[in-house]
Amino acid sequence: MPASRDRVRFGLTLAAVILVLDQLTKFLVLYGLELQLGERLIVTPFMDLVLTYNRGISYGLFQQDGDLGRWFLVAVKLAAAVLFVFWLMRAESRVVAASLGLLIAGAVGNAVDRMLHGAVIDFVSLHALGFYWYVFNLADIAIVAGVLGLLYDAVKGSVTKSPPSGST
User: Fold this and answer.
1) Domain range for 49
2) Fewer beta carbons below 10 Å: N end or C end of the chain?
3) What is the count of structural domains for the chain?
């Protein structure tokens, strides 16, 4: 069943806003703060800004130093974004529309980085008690939030569609 125009517009508007914010934060880190590669700027006791270039996929896996790998990853991200747009056109709830909007923004944001810089610009470093998580950016946050939203919708949907307890 096709989604309402309002849900599609909502998902695409959210994607556009997050994409602009993602690229703006990366621009500010690169050109406003003028951080050098690996330089750490302490923001709070548990968060630093540290400029890294991720030439791989999630968590820096499968590093791609050549143009073939770079453009392959751009193509994968853009193909994923197109598939998410088609899924968005069939979204049956605002939660799914928002989640897909976040996934579209994350995929396109990181693809733009690869096209412009040859790698994804990551800069947020969270840490506690000597443990450092991977360095990430707003597009990565959008992707994680989008996946969590889809998982929430799937669980919520299966709970509301399950028979009442005591039924056989």
Assistant:
1) 5-157
2) C
3) 1
